[in-house]
Fold each of these.
Amino acid sequence: MNVNQSVPPVPSFGQPQPVYPGYHQSSYGGQSGSTAPTIPYGAYNGPVPGYQQTPPQGMSRAPPSSGAPPASTAQAPCGQAAYGQFGQGDVQNGPSSTVQMQRLPGSQPFGSPLAPVGNQPAVLQPYGPPPTSAQVTAQLSGMQISGAVAPAPPSSGLGYGPPTSLASASGSFPNSGLYGSYPQGQAPPLSQAQGHPGIQTPQRSAPSQASGFTPPASGGPRLPSMTGPLLPGQSFGGPSVSQPNHVSSPPPQALPPGTQMTGPLGPLPPMHSPQQPGYQPQQNGSFGPARGPQPNYGSPYPAAPTFGSQSGPQPLPPKRLDPDAIPSPASPYVVDHGESGPLRCNRCKAYMCPFMQFIEGGRRFQCCFCSCINDVPPQYFQHLDHTGKRVDAYDRPELSLGSYEFLATVDYCKNNKFPSPPAFIFMIDVSYNAIRTGLVRLLCEELKSLLDFLPREGGAEESAIRVGFVTYNKVLHFYNVKSSLAQPQMMVVSDVADMFVPLLDGFLVNVNESRAVITSLLDQIPEMFADTRETETVFVPVIQAGMEALKAAECAGKLFLFHTSLPIAEAPGKLKNRDDRKLINTDKEKTLFQPQTGAYQTLAKECVAQGCCVDLFLFPNQYVDVATLSVVPQLTGGSVYKYACFQVENDQERFLSDLRRDVQKVVGFDAVMRVRTSTGIRAVDFFGAFYMSNTTDVELAGLDGDKTVTVEFKHDDRLNEESGALLQCALLYTSCAGQRRLRIHNLALNCCTQLADLYRNCETDTLINYMAKFAYRGVLNSPVKAVRDTLITQCAQILACYRKNCASPSSAGQLILPECMKLLPVYLNCVLKSDVLQPGAEITTDDRAYVRQLVTSMDVAETNVFFYPRLLPLTKSPIESTTEPPAVRASEERLSNGDMYLLENGLNLFLWVGASVQQGVVQSLFSVSSFSQITSGLSVLPVLDNPLSKKVRGLIDSLRAQRSRYMKLIVVKQEDKLEMLFKHFLVEDKSLSGGASYVDFLCHMHKEIRQLLS
Ligand SMILES: [Zn+2]
């Protein structure tokens, strides 16, 4: 590929943009469809004959008999201990807070894990070696891979096709989160009218108030302790590169004749190492090798008067800092340009950044994105040094750092008014199921202490966030918790068809001021509804009510919805059970992923306009239509959590962990993101949890560090090796303290003219992240099989292009893969056989919709471990070793029956125990004398005072701390019925649902490539 192809230049600044012109969505487009898949679904008629492998050994075992999930044993006490671990997040939206949230930068872990092949010529790389996701995506999406290739050839044969309808594990599994089966026949009581004495239904004009609560004894709130920051890498105690079986011999299975693996190819072990060597992104906006060890930067950037707006104590300003030595800060420096606001290019509206070129003695600057010459305002003028650089460049973050924030002026605010602090509204389902499972009591008890940990900024003593409370079943109950009241007051709204908020004053309150009333309310909610017989719920009116309340209070905020059932009560957004497994593998399968009615999208659009983010906690006992219920969270930048068959004794630890993290994490609201680029490339597609009403502005009612937005870039004009390509991402948002800010990220990428250089610098993990999101969006509109075929074709074209243009001539029988893409086939196969694209019999429709929604917001590290789980042997490494054991390949043949293994994928966590594990080990870990006495399905390991027990429990804690959601442990015994569930995650093996083994898939991929080349 030659990127300097002669294409007529197209100015990239064709759309001068006003200053975020308000929030009026003209037309609702949704994200799907606007920039639809450009690659037609090729025809791949199925697999190739002759490669049929014998099934892995495990398959020959008898399927598990059905049985009830084992009761888990005693839960570890929840509460204080768990608070400490919620310190990790990707992005912190405010300035330094009490808990430093840090996680490894997304692009960092994947920096050239595999050394370039030695005999390839070195390349000039003006911007430093490691490409980023953006670069890879840009290059790959832009290059003419398919130019040399005919449309996907038909082939035939083996089994990547439709899943076989093997009736697999029919037993019910313990609720691991994803795979909860539903008990039948929980005969709900007859629905009856609520009968709370003293509660009246208010009329719209004059809501009456009813009280009748006894003042509670206010329990002293627990005081969980916050732990210090989790430093990058701290939780990943393992070796810097854990590459199990890095150079592996060819697989033991017979390869088809003529297939050769070159070098260390062969089915390669995936790597999970967030700490692979590579260059660190530097804060000066470019990339390059880090200069030695990073100093300890406890102190902020020198507090120059121009940007000294950070709160909190400012240590004595040091001398100028070497920007290359500044670690990527979790909290960027905030720049305040006063009333004039951020300095921008007049034409393309890009923000001042280190790449802007000052000229004419500093009186003007040339925009690095659109080349427009702009005047420097007098107050911003500064002289240039002999190199043409402003002499104050290293005093100003916006001239020397890659990421920083601007304080926004009132021009950047809705209705030209500075925002009010945001609010959190807790909306609790109090129908029969929620009461019966103990959910309501657990939640109310937890909220009493959790409200002390609302996110706050800087050194603020208390959070600026106000709170409100609503309970509901098929009517809504609002609560007045004004601090002057002796007791809370309830107002019922039963007119759910035309929702309104019956009270304004006293609904959203400061926690500290209203503590006594709030505690009283939370004490009484479980009692008030203890005898409810109401089983029906509404859903849309609940979100509507929360959104209207925020609108009335003129603020942004977040709704925390705790919901149990399909909303079948008569109301807007009423749903019916439309689950139908017979649709799987038909052209109508896509309907299972589409929302049932348009009411949810309409509501989501209104929520986005108000800056109302929705986090949904689901506790279903049966089908609840996650595909429809998750529409609003998805489009408002919210999260969905799902706890199938919730039981307090089994699931409280997981739920409370997730809830605590979710409530405490730093959030931003009412955000708009715009990506600008230099001439030659442009952002063409976006993936994530957000809403788009046009093709350029990503609107997020809320966002936090657990959400990732993947941007696809296309290069459609001449790129220059000298100047490279520049990207600027600007995010306008309201902080959790109510401050309007702009967060700016700048990125400079190098460009190459040689295809070989491109293949030498791509990131497979990033490609997989993109391809998975692309495919998961595709299932909304296309048959799942067509989506799978497209993925295979894309992958084959990428690899065939390499073979054709970069590899040295060799026998066609050799499978030659680029060094950086050795793992592309194994990972792609994992995506192809994932629950969304090839569901097994035990996967419910809700599970698929749930996973689909989760993957949409995952970062590269998360998709990596989600699609290829980590399998860690426990007794191989020395007992005193404190590092994580190196992972082994996720295949049954890697399991030794004399060992134990932990398997995790970010959502699930298993401890597999081999049947021949030594008795001493069993005793040390489970406190029972033999393998047969270990309780299958156990979810908590006994706390024993011996090295092995401490080590394994410590490792489990460490794995959980690395993930944004709590992973519940499931102990699986070899040959036990639960083993089927475990084997689902051994992704290199053939799966029960028809997914190919890695070896089979590699052979198939080889055949596809050969056909493309012939
Ligand atoms: Zn410009």
Amino acid sequence: MTRCLDCGSQRSSDQCPVCGLTSAAAELVFRRRLVLQTAIFLAGSLLFPYLSQLYPPLDLDVMLVFFGLIFFVALTLVVLLDRQARAHKDIEVLRHLFTGLIPIPFILSVALLLNGRLDSVKNVTYHPTSVEGRYLMRGIVRGTRRLFVYSWREGRRYERLAVDSDDYDRFHEGDKINVGEEPGALGIPWFYGVYRATQPHVSMPPDATMHAGKAQASPSAPQK
Ligand SMILES: [Zn+2]
């Protein structure tokens, strides 16, 4: 008993009783679909590292490693599917695994976009810390730039901030900085921005200074 490569139903004759395709036709349809699905997955895999930098989570590097594993597994499944189909072996389990992985880069991208987009600037908290190291890997589209700073989060020693090229060039080891962090609409804390601390713990980023100015302009405002 073999299964139809197109629809997966069992068949005993060459023609599938459900979709009506012969085994040769079903293999052709299967192969075309596999190419299309692989293309969609690859497109998502190119998109995810790019979109994840718009509202970069603090744990971006962990997520990129996790996604790298998914990417590797998916491409392995494509190779296995192709081989098994050629050998006319059962592919149902592999097929389901692969189909399940295709939407993951899109789901992750949308989650990170919503997490940052739906978050309010009012939620930014600033943490004084200092630059302990920098990391640069040049890429074709945009490179990977990180500032390593001492972490303010419990159980962590360092944060790896996904900065843009301006901030990467602006800050160097030993610089005192304030790091803006947002909690994330979906609960994934993300990196809002990095600001130079001219005087330790006193200097404030631009919008925080604005708040301070407003408070001074209306002295009757209740003080916390
Ligand atoms: Zn069929």
